[in-house]
Amino acid sequence: MLEVIRTLSKKTPSKIVLVVLDGVGGLPLETNGETELATAKTPNMDALAKDSQLGLVELVGAGITPGSGPGHLSLFGYDPITFTVGRGALSAVGIGVKLNAGDVAVRGNFATLGEDRVVLDRRAGRPSDEKNAEIVAKLKAAIPEIDGTPVEIYTESEHRFVVVFRANGTALGANVSDVDPQVTGVQPMVAKANDEASAKTAALVNAFVARTEEALKDEPQVNGALFRGYSDVPHFPSYEDVYQLKAACIASYPMYKGLASLVGMDVLDVPGEEDAMEEKMQVLKDNWDKYDFFYLHSKKTDSTGEDGNFAAKVKKVELFDSLLPKILELNPDVIAIVGDHSTPSKLASHSWHPVPFLLKSEYGRKDLAARYTEEEAGKGSLGLRKGTDVMPLLMANALKLQKYGA
């Protein structure tokens, strides 16, 4: 489909805003109850929904729980089955680390380990960025290299960090199994190579995990490392090439900035604290005349869901709703609100549930949905869509696609 879109895309002065409320989809805490979205008081999204088309989106496929990388790739129009990238590369690129051919980047979580190395907390209590930097500095001093392979360690945010194993004469493979068990109450897993080219990488990862635990043995909470998302250097067709768009990313978290950069968006600087939504709205306004496509990301609807905090997720939805008029006053030709996956507080994790999708343009048909919620979106005229349908629909509603065929 990308090749078809490439041949049909055309430049126009119309402007598109794609808002991704990370993990926005949810579940009721009790059977037949209300989700976080439905519980939230959202007068601005309600009003917008009544003038919009709604539907539901499956990012990868029925029953498949997407990670944030595949979820975003799908929304950006890249089939996440065909275009794959590990979270390590997304995070590395997002914080400005240059990856060379043969390098492998890995996304890490600092964790709390108890007796017998049992995982007590996969996120080490979400330490502050300052604590993260302190731990990273300690690891840099303890693990500058492993068996002659240079090791670079970077702070990302909270419990997240990035490790880059630099190729030193021989390319490293990235086909390695996770260390992160993604549950508590068990020991971290042993990294295993899934092909011969990745054997050295697996050995490096296991050595790094062991040396990290030794270096952090006196830390009461941040005393272990869990890995997933191995990646070598990825390559994607650019937004400008495929969609003829001058595109900008407004995000705080490195992974999302990294993915946007890999698909050719300009990553705009956002001042203030992590996920500072008011500052993001100001960045959007300040750059309105410079771009024709804006990707605006909000993280906390996801992290509150991962924490299992229903009430906090409701508050983050309400915060975005209160700021929505700042986008609408710019009068975009097309605005869409969607999630990259669902993160129900009930599960405290990503889930397979479709996410609600709102699309507003002057070319929409009549729609029965009256709110931006999962239930109302299920009534919408857009129906159940694939994630890769989102960009073509935005382009069409912005009158940026030519007719196909005679």
Describe the structure.
By secondary structure, this protein is of the alpha/beta class. It has helices at residues 2-8, 36-39, 43-49, 68-75, 87-94, 129-142, 199-215, 239-243, 254-262, 277-286, 300-306, 310-328, 374-377, 390-397; strands at 16-21, 53-58, 104-113, 119-121, 145-146, 149-157, 160-165, 224-231, 247-250, 266-267, 293-298, 334-338, 355-360, 383-386. The protein is built from 14 helices and 14 strands. 53% of the residues are buried. The protein starts with a helix and ends in a 9-residue tail after the last helix. Helix 5 crosses helix 9 (254-262), helix 10 runs parallel beside helix 12 (310-328) and helix 11 packs antiparallel against helix 12. The chain is globular, with a radius of gyration of 21 Å. A hairpin with a 2-residue loop joins strand 6 (149-157) and strand 7. 31% of the residues lie in helices and 19% in strands. The strands form two sheets. Strands 10-9-11-1-12-13-2-14 form an eight-stranded mixed beta sheet, sandwiched between helices. Strands 3, 4, 5, 6, 7 and 8 form a six-stranded antiparallel beta sheet that branches. The model has no long low-confidence stretch (mean pLDDT 93).
Q: Summarize the helix and strand pattern as letters.
A: HEHHEHHEEHEEEHEHEHEHEHHEEHEH
Question: How many DSSP-defined strands?
Answer: 14
| Alpha carbon gap, first and last residue | 18 Å
The parts where pLDDT drops under 50 for at least 5 residues are: none
| Spatial arrangement of strands, main beta sheet | 10-9-11-1-12-13-2-14
How much of the polypeptide forms β-strand, as a percent range?
15-25%
- Total helices: the number is 14
Mean pLDDT: 93
Structural class: alpha/beta
The biggest sheet amounts to: 8 strands, mixed
Kindly provide the radius of gyration, computed on alpha-carbon positions and rounded to a whole number of angstroms: 21 Å
Considering DSSP H and I runs of 4 or more, what fraction of the residues is helical? Answer: 25-40%
Principal-axis shape? globular
